């Protein structure tokens, strides 16, 4: 990659810093900071706001506005459980934000296959590359998640922190980021590895990382969306109760391919 493209990425991340930090903080607090630190701070501020806003609005809707519509009363988590999830997530958040900060540095340094403008390659190529990126990430997260269960020390010291929430009345949208910091980073690593394998639109990569916060909130609300082949909360709730099924992230395809899929509708039919 030439130096000009590297400068384009730097200008792009500088713009994101100005939009997020410039809108929320006095300039004197963040402009003297090195560019790398500005990127981390911007990611931390944006991710924290997204976590609280999306989690609060979703909890307000399903637990209060639509109370007893989506979930029975005894399946609604206590405030204490949600506060604990928020505490675990916020303790890990500074570490989570290190990964996109590092990935931005690698992009700006020209070490990845990122491109800046969709017009550089055209919409058809962009769409094909995006599909390849999502397949790569889905495959990577599936196996990373599965190994966090299968390798006993990884489960005991990392992933078990997340699996203390193993019943409907302990799961909430706030559980979506309640991981041991290293666990959360490991499950996001496929997003970064993909940058070295698949030509990727940089802004799309950043957007998909932030989409993770919304997606993980959604799959921990215990409401089965019944939208095949999406790996929604109905599937993920089974994962939290059996520990051996539904490791996938966005879709059911990896679990179907590797024999770990368990369908919530089939479970319901057996209970009847």
Structure description:
By secondary structure, the chain is an all-alpha fold. It is 65% helix and 1% strand. It has helices spanning 3-24, 27-30, 35-65, 79-96, 98-108, 123-150, 152-157, 181-197, 202-218, 233-242, 253-258, 264-271; strands at residues 114-115, 200-201. A two-stranded parallel ribbon has the order 1-2. It is globular, with a radius of gyration of 20 Å. The termini are far apart. The mean pLDDT is 91.
Largest sheet: 2 strands, parallel
Give the overall pLDDT as a whole number: 91
According to DSSP, the number of beta strands is: 2
Query: Roughly how many Å is the radius of gyration?
Result: 20 Å
Strand order of the largest sheet: 1-2
DSSP strand (E) fraction?
A: under 5%
Q: Can I get a quick summary?
A:
This protein has 12 helices and 2 strands.
What are the salient characteristics of this protein?
single chain; 272 residues; mainly alpha; two-stranded parallel sheet; 12 helices; 65% helix
Topology:
Blueprint: H1 3-24, H2 27-30, H3 35-65, H4 79-96, H5 98-108, E1 114-115, H6 123-150, H7 152-157, H8 181-197, E2 200-201, H9 202-218, H10 233-242, H11 253-258, H12 264-271
Parallel strand pairs: 1-2
Helix pairs in contact: 1-3, 3-4, 3-5, 3-9, 4-8, 5-8, 6-8
């Amino acid at each position: 990659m030439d130096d000009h493209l590297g400068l384009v990425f730097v200008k792009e991340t500088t713009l994101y810093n100005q939009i997020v930090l410039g809108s929320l903080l006095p300039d004197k607090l963040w402009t003297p900071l090195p560019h790398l630190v500005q990127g981390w701070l911007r990611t931390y501020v944006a991710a924290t706001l997204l976590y609280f806003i999306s989690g609060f609005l979703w909890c307000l809707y399903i637990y209060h506005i639509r109370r007893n519509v989506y979930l029975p009363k005894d399946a609604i988590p206590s405030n204490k459980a949600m506060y604990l999830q928020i505490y675990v997530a916020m303790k890990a958040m500074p570490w989570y934000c290190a990964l996109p900060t590092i990935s931005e540095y690698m992009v700006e340094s020209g070490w990845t296959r990122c491109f800046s403008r969709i017009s550089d390659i055209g919409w058809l190529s962009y769409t094909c590359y995006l599909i390849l990126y999502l397949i790569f990430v889905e495959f990577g997260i599936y196996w990373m998640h599965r190994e966090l269960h299968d390798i006993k020390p990884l489960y005991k010291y990392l992933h078990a922190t997340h699996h203390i929430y193993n019943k409907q009345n302990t799961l909430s949208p706030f559980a979506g980021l309640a991981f041991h910091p290293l666990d959360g980073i490991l499950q996001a690593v496929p997003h970064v590895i993909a940058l070295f394998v698949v030509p990727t639109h940089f802004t799309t990569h950043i957007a998909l990382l932030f989409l993770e916060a919304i997606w993980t909130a959604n799959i921990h609300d215990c409401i089965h969306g019944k939208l095949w082949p999406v790996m929604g909360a109905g599937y993920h709730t089974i994962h939290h109760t059996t520990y051996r099924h539904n490791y996938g992230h966005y879709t059911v395809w990896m679990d179907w391919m590797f024999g770990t899929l368990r369908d919530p509708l089939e479970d319901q039919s057996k209970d009847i």
